[in-house]
Amino acid sequence: MIDQFNQLEPGEIETMFKVPILVSILIAGADNNIDNAEMKKAVSISKLKQQKARKDLIEYYKIVGSDFEDKLKILIQHYPVDAEDRNPQIVEELQKVNHILPKLDKNFAVDFYQSIRDIARKVAEASGGVLGYMAVGYEESKFVGLDMINDPSN
After folding, report:
1. Does residue 17 register a pLDDT over 70?
2. Chain-centre distance for alpha carbon 150
3. Three-class SS of residue 117?
4. Does 52 reside within a domain?
């Protein structure tokens, strides 16, 4: 278990561990099409974050990253297929983080927030633009800033 989560309720801990997966689904499916490039990118980010995340997040990402692809596939099936129905549900789930982050160490909360925004941006760039590189589609751009989550540095 992560020391940062000692003061959290079990449901809050579960929410925190689901956040990278929820962000991946939200961004990848914003255009109503979760494509293979976006799925692969989300899985590769989860592996990369286990080694290259901010120091205080490495342990977190080791837990999140174990069986990430399986968890991603299972959670995708949990939500409606249509983005118009799915996205509001995921946004509501992500908003729960606003009540959790203030309970955590501020540095951890800020690092976590910046890290999940990084995930959102990288997943959004996975299948857009010229030859599929470095562009965010219109639908993804609505969510890529993760505006439903309050910046804990403010």
Report:
1. yes
2. 14
3. helix
4. yes
The answer to whether 136 and 121 are in contact (CB under 8 A) is: yes
The answer to whether position 16 is within a domain reads yes
Rounded Cα distance between 3 and 60, Å, is 10
The radius of gyration of the chain's CA atoms, rounded to the nearest angstrom, is: 15
Range of the domain at 35: 8-141
Of 42, 6, 14, whose CA–CA distance to 140 is shortest?
A: 42
First CA to last CA distance, the chain: 28
Q: What is the pLDDT of residues 106-154, one digit of tens each?
A: 999 999 999 999 999 999 888 665 444 456 677 788 898 999 999 999 9
Tokens of 63: 């837990």
- Residue 79 CA to residue 61 CA, distance in Å, equals 23
Q: How many domains does the chain have?
A: 1
- Given a contact cutoff of 8 angstroms between Cβ atoms, the answer to whether 101 and 47 are in contact is no
